Amino acid sequence: MALDNASVSFLEMAAAAAGPDAPPAWEQTPQQAREGASAMTPMFGEGPAMHSTENIELTGWDGGRFEIRIHRPVAEPEAVFVYLHGGGWVVSDIDSFDTLGRMLAHQSGATVVLVNYRKAPENPFPAALEDAWTALNWTADRLGELAHGKAPLYVGGDSAGGNLAAVVALRSKDQGKPKIARQFLIYPVADADFTRPSYLEAENQTLLPKEFMAWFWDHYVPDHDQRSNPEASPLQAEDLSGVAPAFLVTAAHDVLRDEGEAYADRLREAGVDVESHRWPGQMHGFFSMVNVLPASAEVMKLIAEAVRTPATQAQEA
Predict the structure, then answer these.
(1) Does residue 41 sit in helix, strand or coil?
(2) What fold does the segment set 5-19+26-310 form as a domain?
(3) What are the boundaries of each domain within the chain?
(4) Is 239 a catalytic residue?
(5) pTM, to two decimals
(6) Does residue 296 have an active-site annotation?
């Protein structure tokens, strides 16, 4: 199936707005790429009102500071969801993902913690991962404040955020805490292999062509030898058994499709409960296009339902 009409229209609009002389994304500086990503934020609207919203500054592993934003949809939420945004570890922030976070909180009934992890190249690997780990543990220590003491803790993210979510889920398994009820991985970066078929298919070269993904990796993990580290490429982990149940979505026309699906297969082989979906007619980044692409709302509804139905109940049904 080709890209759906909504995606085609969006790409045409974006190309027209950029103009014929705009340089390819992978030839831009990180600051130029960030400005381009931020310019899209107004399209997403403001999102539902929350019972409360709070910004908190945390201290990272190296003494650096970063911010989290806590959206509480109701007075007594039933779950807590740590969400790690996409952007190739280089672009985007919690302001760009604020509407998505509000919608996720509103539809799932969970407190959503958005993590403004520090970005490469100023803060290369493992800074983003360590910030995500700090935020996850900070949240786990305060479940009784953010929801209730026995509330399930979820972690998830899209693209580079999906990469971080997968890695902190693995680290949680290896260290025995915090306990994660389910990991939500939306077209995650799982490896640094640019030779997979999905990287080479012409129809996949839309918002994230092969060259742009290589640009992101060059900024996040410039040392090529480190890219096989499972904390950068979770598909390279030797043992995935015992990790939290996974909910995984890939896009049919995405360079990351094959590695995401390979990760789902590895999880299943390790005995992990996995629910996975390949979304037809979609390109990389579609989930973050809230209030713009209809498929984003479809996946949001599915995630919200999964949050409201703990993995143990889903297995028993």
Answers:
(1) helix
(2) Rossmann fold (3.40.50)
(3) 5-19+26-310
(4) no
(5) 0.96
(6) no
